Amino acid sequence: MKLSQLAPGQSGVIDHIVGDDVLASRLMEMGLLDGEPIEVVGRAPMGDPTEYALRGYRISLRRNESDRVEVTLTSPSASQ
After folding, report:
1. Which of 61, 37, 65 shows the shortest CA–CA distance to 50?
2. CA–CA separation, 39 vs 9, rounded Å?
3. Nearest-angstrom CA–CA distance, 33 and 45
4. Is the pTM of this model over 0.85?
């Protein structure tokens, strides 16, 4: 599933970055690497960008960026 599909409070593990271009390289340089756990912290009022926590820091990604990150869901929801 795409990282952009996770709701606030959900977490997953990064499977891979889709593509082999400048954006894919930039995402990997930011620490979005295969096997890294990532959690959705929150979403802006209009739904974009979204804040994520990984590797001890937080980053914000726009939907077109988070659509490129494939993840495996590890927590179904924040309330469970």
Report:
1. 61
2. 7
3. 28
4. yes
* Residue numbers of the domain that contains 17: 3-74
Residue 77 scores a pLDDT above 70 = no
pLDDT at 76 over 90: no
CATH of the domain at 32: 2.30.30.90
Hey, which bits of 1-80 come out as E strands?
A: 11-17, 37-43, 50-54, 57-61, 69-75
Token pair listed for 60: 């914000």
Structure tokens given for 40: 């959705």
How many distinct structural domains can be found in the chain?
1
79 assigned to some structural domain: no
